[in-house]
Amino acid sequence: MMKKATAEEAVAVTSVFWDIKMFPVPPGFDARRVGPCIKRLLEKYGYFGPLTINAVGLLTDVHDDILGALSSSGINTYYGPFGASADIMWLFYEWTQKNPPPTNILAICDRTGLRPTREFNIFGPFSYSSPRYFRQEDAINWISLILAESEAVGEDTCSETGEYFCSICYRYDHPGQGFESFKRHLSSLEHTRKKLALLHPRREMFEEDPTIVRFQPEASFFVFGFNIDF
User: Which of 152-161, 168-177, 202-211 is most confident?
Assistant: First the structure.
C-alpha cells in the first residue's frame, strides 16, 4: 500500500520517475489516461502539490503512438540508453539539485538505488515483491493498479504537452517543438553516431563516415590477353 502524505508532504512538489519498459502501458490501454490515473492515485493518498511525471527508458522500443499520447497528456519523455534504472538515478540526482526538500518522489521503477532519506519522501505505488520475482509480479501489480484507477478517471482534459529529453545528446526539446521533432532526432545520424560512440567506443573508432569515399589506387590485371585497368 502506498504511503499516506503528511501535512507537509500533501502540498509539496511531487515528481514521478516511471520506468516505461519495466512498467509498460497496458496492452490496448489509452496511454493518455496514464497521467490522470497516477494523479488520482496520488490524491487518494493525500498528495495534492504540483506534479511532474517523467517516463524514462529506451524510447525507441516504445511504439510511437504511445509516446505521442503520453506527451500530449503532459508526461515528460526521457530517452536513456543504459536502461531506465541507471538513467533514473541520474535524473533523480539532477532533480534533487533543483528541487530542495520537502519534496515527494513516486518511484515506478526499480527502487534499489533510490534510498529513502529524511530530506526526500521516496515511495512506490505498491509494495514491491522480492528481487527474484520483481519484473513479473510487479509488472502485473502495475497493470492491475492502472486499470483499477482508470475506472474512476473521466475523459482526459489535459491541455499541456510534455517535454522531451535525450540524455545521449543532452538535447532538450520544449513542448512547442512537438513529438515529431523529437522522433526525427532519435533516428538522426547525429544521435546514432553519439549512441555508438557511447555504447560501443571501440567500434566507433574504426567506423567511417559513409559519405566519405576513400582514395583507391589504380590497379591493372591481365586477363586472357587483355589489360584491364580499375
Answer: 152-161
User: From CA 34, how far away is CA 142, in angstroms rounded?
Assistant: 11
pLDDT of 117 above 80? no
Is there a contact between 56 and 84 (Cβ–Cβ < 8 Å)? yes
Most confident of 47-51, 117-121, 151-155: 47-51
Residue whose C-alpha cell is 490501454: 29
Name the pTM for this structure.
Answer: 0.75
Cis peptide bond upstream of 131, omega within 30: no
Pick from 72-76, 149-153, 211-215 the range whose average pLDDT is largest: 72-76
Instruction: Count how many residues are written for the chain.
Output: 230
215 pLDDT band (50/70/90 cuts)?
very low
